[in-house]
Specification:
Blueprint: E1 31-34, H1 48-54, H2 61-66, E2 71-79, E3 86-91, E4 94-99, H3 100-113, E5 119-126, H4 135-146, H5 160-166, E6 172-176, E7 187-189, E8 193-194, H6 203-215, E9 225-227, E10 231-232, E11 236-237, H7 241-247, E12 260-263, H8 271-285, H9 287-293
Parallel strand pairs: 1-2, 1-12, 2-5, 5-6, 6-7, 8-9, 9-12
Antiparallel strand pairs: 2-3, 3-4, 10-11
Length: 294
């Protein structure tokens, strides 16, 4: 396999510049994802000591988008606001003081400038311990601000080319667990996450998890997320640049078997470039690529 290293590459428009991407469905794209996207070093509540344990990204939502992230792992809590509830990002209850409105604004601004990019908003966790959560108000907020940009789950069978032809604005997939008050005419079903299930794991454990997960990976039937992350007892979320670059390099066959590859500090590695190349290879070679890997 070739990784297209010498080809022109613009992270902010990598989907627009992916060879033959219009032939693919959204379920066939290889998505670079940001694990716990709202916990970053530029957040208002970032503090070095605590942040060492809670921070998973280096910069804001707008920056993540510009650097090529297209799938966002979202963990929200809910609290009362002066008029409507406030939906805040957290890591096991520790808040970054970023709120959902910031992500919505970043996504809409980005798509206004890059109308042929697609984005997955993976509302993976809608809870903060035992605190109440207002799903109906979340649904209302998202429908009001993003409704005209959403790709319906009923259109999952369409190719990207067909989606572009049908609408110049519908570029967002929203997925969430089934909760009362969420409108599943617009939400896709919850995106399954492959992860170790352990709070602490080492690099060898992670490699084994990825290898095992990819042996049984679904072949482009739905969007799923592989958590290529490592959390250490001493250091919190780990920087895995060299491992990510080794495991998902397109000279190997792991990356083309993936859907979302969710990483911490994602831009430190070449994961966006590898997802770009892998998506292009899937578009060009189609099922022949999958059969060659079996």
């Amino acid at each position: 396999m070739s990784d297209n290293r010498n080809a022109s590459f613009d992270k902010s428009k990598w989907m627009s510049n992916t060879l033959d991407i219009n032939l693919l469905k959204l379920t066939e794209v290889v998505w670079p994802g940001t694990h716990n996207c709202g916990m970053d070093k530029k957040a208002p509540n970032y503090e070095v000591l605590v942040g060492n344990w809670t921070t998973c990204q280096n910069d804001s939502f707008a920056w993540q988008l510009a650097q090529g992230a297209r799938a966002f792992d979202i963990r929200l809590g809910c609290t009362a606001g002066p008029v409507t509830p406030v939906f805040y990002f957290h890591h096991n209850g520790l808040q970054s003081h970023r709120i959902l409105d910031e992500l919505i604004d970043a996504v809409t601004d980005f798509l206004d400038q890059n109308p042929d990019e697609f984005i997955v908003l993976d509302f993976h966790e809608l809870a903060d311990g035992a605190k109440p959560f207002d799903y109906r108000s979340l649904n209302s907020l998202l429908m009001r601000k993003l409704g005209s940009r959403l790709v319906s789950p009923m259109d999952a069978h369409l190719t990207i080319g067909q989606l572009k032809a049908a609408s110049t604005s519908r570029r967002i997939v929203m997925a969430a667990p089934s909760k009362p008050g969420l409108d599943f005419d617009y939400f896709w079903t919850r995106i399954p996450h492959k992860w170790s299930g352990k709070t602490f794991n080492d690099v060898d454990d992670l490699r084994t998890l990825i290898s095992t997960s990819l042996k049984d990976a679904p072949h482009d039937r739905f969007i799923w997320s592989l958590s290529a992350t490592n959390y250490s007892l001493l250091g919190g979320p780990q920087h895995l640049k060299s491992q990510i670059n080794d495991w998902f390099n397109t000279t190997r066959d792991w990356v083309t078997r993936c859907s979302i590859i969710s990483t911490d500090f994602f831009e430190e590695s070449e994961i966006v470039r590898y997802c770009w190349s892998a998506t292009s290879m899937k578009a060009v070679y189609g099922d022949a690529l999958y059969e060659r890997q079996r």
